[in-house]
Amino acid sequence: MRNCVVFLLCLVTVKTKVYACDDEELSRHLYNATLQENCYQNATSCQSTCTSGHVLENGSQTTSHVCNGTSWIPNTVTCLPARTPVMTTNFTIVYVTEDQPAGNCFYSFNVRMWESISSFRNAIRSTCRELETGSISIENLELSPLAFQVNVVFHVKFSGEGTETSRDICMDMIEIISNGNQNYLKPFSVISCGASHSAVKKKQTTRSAAFEYNCTEMLGSQPLASSGGVRCVHCFPGNYLNSTRCKPCLQGTYQAVPGQLTCDVCPTGKHVTEDRTKCLDSVCVSTFLSQKTQNIDLTCTSENQMCMSTCLGGYIQDDGGLSTVYNCSGEGWFPPLKSCIKYEYSTYNVDLEAVYTTNDAVAATCLSQFQAFTSGHRDYFQTNISTSCSELHDGNVTIENITIGSIAFQIKMTFHLKFYGSWPTKIMDVCMDIIKITFQSRTTYLHPYTVLQCTDGRTNVTKVSAQRSGDVLNCPDGRLIINSTEASYCIPCSAGAFQNDLICLPCPNGTYQPIIGQTFCQNCSDWTKVNEDRTECRLEEITTLGNISYTGSSPPTEVTLLPNVTEQSTELTTTEQTITTDLAETKETTQNVLTSILTILSTSASLTTTVVTIETTETSTEKSTSSSPTTTALRTTKGYTIPCGLDQLSSAIPNSKYTCAAHNQTCTVECSSGYVTSEGEASVEYRCEGDVWTPNRKLCLEYDIPFTTSALYTTYSTVDQVALSCLQDFREITERNKDLFQKTITDYCGDLGINAGGLKIENITSISLSFQITNTILITFYEESVDVREVCLDYITLIFLNVPSLLMPYSRLNCTSGLSDVTKVSASHGSPSYSCNNRTYLVNRTSQVYCVPCAPGMYMISSKCVPCPEGHYQPLPGQLTCEPCTENRTVVESGTNCTGYTIPCGLDQLSSAIPNSKYTCAAHNQTCTVECSSGYVTSEGEASVEYRCEGDVWTPNRKLCLVPCVPGMYMVSSQCVPCPEGHYQPLSGQLTCEPCTENRTVVGSGTNCTEIVDEENDFNLRKSQVGPTGLTETEIIVIAAVSVCVVFFLVVIATVYYCKKSKAKRRTSHADVPGDAKSGDGVSVKSDEYLRGSHEGLIPGKSGSTNDPKWTYRDEKIIEKSTFASANEAKALDVLNTIIDINIDNEECITAQPPVCENVREGKWRPLHVRHKNESNVAVVINKAKETEPDKAPCRTLSDYDNFQIYVPEPEPSDPD
């Protein structure tokens, strides 16, 4: 086990050593570059970096190296010095001479400007003093007068060491400061203009966005874009400087030294290396071309040490290729030279299975005639198939054989096809697809059968489907199949080899084969020996007899087949099956085939003329189409009136100006400064199409500059301690200096126009990583343009490291593990985010960002502009609501106005034209309703009609209000006419009359229809008049009387039942009260003292009556038993009937006043009128009480009523007096 482990370790060690590269070897081939830390001994990949101030040939500074097992790729790196180029640019200031034309003042202006050029240079240098711009100078001034202004172009040159970014920021600052400060770069306020003077003001400053780079100070160098900007770099070896750019050395020349103006010529007999840096001897090329080859063309390019072998026509390499490229490896050519072999085209055997249906008979009964019919039409089938693919290829397609089988009601016929010649595989596939599709689409294709005579009768034959199967490639014996992108070839086995199944094998030992394309090898005799390539047998030695020499060569021997070389035949069988067609797959196949056909046709030489004709036709069509505007322009001659109308642009789009071309057919509307369209466009091009401008009118709206929030990242290093341990103290210092940060940024950007209220630091967050702390300062800008804000942040990030005190309130930090110094590391800023106020929305267009208000006719909701709702308008931009359009007014001009509306139909068509009516209108008189006066209707019996104004006509047509027809008449064409004979109409205002049925007659002037009286039948003599229901008046009266009686009877029964049920409930309630029940104070529940004390407030009476000692009771009984012990029983019942209505509904209220309780239904209870006991000698006491509010009448439910008891007092003793 230990030995295995040691072996594996050794194996790993050996393998690692084999597949690793030496980093020291790579270091020796680095020029002005160093390896990075990821390069170490036995590494498989690493990187090298150019030293400071150097770059690679492509402008980058880093190269990645990969170990291929033995060496590094690339194994050499060259970096050349890079310097900042001289950069020139310009900016233009427009000065306005307010009192005199500029031409009068131009001489003085020119003199004063050139006198001030030094002060201009000093002002610019002062502006950019904190930036790394290098030296700044003003090379030239160009002055040109125009009307009342002078345009001055300042040509600025940056030279020396500096950064391109700093120079770009410098130009931005010059532009911004000059636009904001009238005194900046303006050395005078008044200028002499001949005999008079004129005041001078600056109008605008505009910088050029481009720089020009010049490397003439560094001979043999060119401007090269790198990661740090454009740099001047010498032309690398293999190149020379052509004017201002480096170009590769011409063919046959080379240059080994960088920064040269020419290349050297490589002498004859030598070759230039591929990188054109060296001139070497061409040993490899001469060796390659000296080879003796057959059927091969050899060519070489000595410059790059590359050669190519190309097979001649009719020959191919054994891998199917026609050519091979070879490279010189120093010691020889790689790969070895390949031979070319004469080829033959293979043949394709493809089966096409066509399925037919015998509709009226079983297929087997029709098979014999189907076969006979097929044999007679073999040439017809051959013509169909050959014609289908004749346009694709000039090869031949023949039908080798046809087999036929049947199953159920289907006959399957298999065409065994053979493709001869150089058929490319793709074209052959397309040919088969065409045959299948044509079989489906053309009725007569491969279908000569119409009606077959079967044993059971005649039947129709229809096609079902066609399917491809059984693809086989064939080559003659001794040939191998070689497939290429174009076709399949048959290549013979070379001499010294034979074919065994699908491969060529070398002849076995002791055998040879001098002929190509054989399936066997011959045996050598015992006294001969096979040569090395096994193409012949030679004598083992040469025997000399006198002057005659014989070179041994055995006579031909008989051919012997090797044991494994046998001819085998394979029988191909097919299974008959039902073929179905999927329409979706057919459609997809058709599309693919058509695409393939178009591809092939486009490359086919036979169709070149047709394609060219089609392209020419299309070109002519395009020319004809493009010439149509010219024709229109010719018609639009001088004096032509544009149908769209320019007033639709000038007056309809305020805050803009327009310019037109092409006889006013095309106009461009430019919004004024500070205005854009709702989509952020500064200009819109309109085209007159017919009599309408396209696109629809777009208003120019005054925009606001959006608020921007950007993140400024400043990174600091905690030199002595881990940053996390110092983070708390760092955050505290940052928070204390937040206002200082804001003031510092404002001060440095003050020259750009950003004041104290122009920005605000929203938040500062600090995070730590390793020995660094990064501040994220979130800044919101409220003033100046977006570009100025970006320049401000760029300026801060560029000078962050150059100005020690900038954003640096940290000197030493108190960390948890000790003190630490702090140094700056870097600064950067992120992309801004934009926001608008609640009356505008954000529009970002062509790198410009605007806050645009909603256009008139729209209002703002959820930061989106939506059209005013129906019936509302808004004439102003940037609104949050829309105004309602009042009655009899309408919204016009796309919701921007509300005006009085004149109905085009005319109300007089309703008021005066329809008498006996009145009308009311809505929707700005677009819809009106006409109501006929009382007693009038329309001819259709309508009391009112609604009219709608469509165009300038009321719909429907006018309908008059007429007096309705009386019974016995009906309305015809607005006139009342009597009902025709045999018809009647008992109602008024009808449009038709009813027919009077058989055995009836019309009476009463057509108002009724009665039965005819038959004197022989007495039972009909007194028959009443029949109404519309079919019943007589007597029958109707009897039925009504019976119905009333039945209803009354049912009500009585229900009342009795309900009363009995209520008594039973009350009886049960009283029975449940025990005789000895006591109240809370110990008084008997059934005692009158308790009842009087508990409910005296519910019984109206005189004060103090409840305490009358003469008031006694002999007995108490519940209401349902109605038993009384005194002689006043009858009187007590009368009182009870007066007080309480027996029709009690469960959970309803009994009140002592008119109903005021909740849930009291009218008619159920009447107010209680309780008489005082002294007046009636009867007392009503409630045994079950509930608390009630003092200001409301007492309210009791049915359960309370169940405990009502009446007490009849003892008769008072008679007064002895």
From TrEMBL:
Entry keyword annotation includes RNA-binding: no
Pfam families xrefs: Ephrin_rec_like
Xref: Gene3D superfamilies: Tumor Necrosis Factor Receptor, subunit A, domain 2
Positions in coiled-coil regions: none
Keyword annotations of the record: Disulfide bond, Membrane, Signal, Transmembrane, Transmembrane helix
Transmembrane portions of the chain: 1036-1059
InterPro entries (UniProt xref): Growth_fac_rcpt_cys_sf (IPR009030), Sushi_SCR_CCP_dom (IPR000436), Tyr-kin_ephrin_A/B_rcpt-like (IPR011641)
Leader peptide range in chain numbering: 1-20
Ranges for domain Sushi: 21-79, 646-700, 907-961
Keyword Cell membrane: no
Listed name of the protein: Sushi domain-containing protein
Organism: Magallana gigas
Lineage, highest ranks first: Eukaryota, Metazoa, Spiralia, Lophotrochozoa, Mollusca
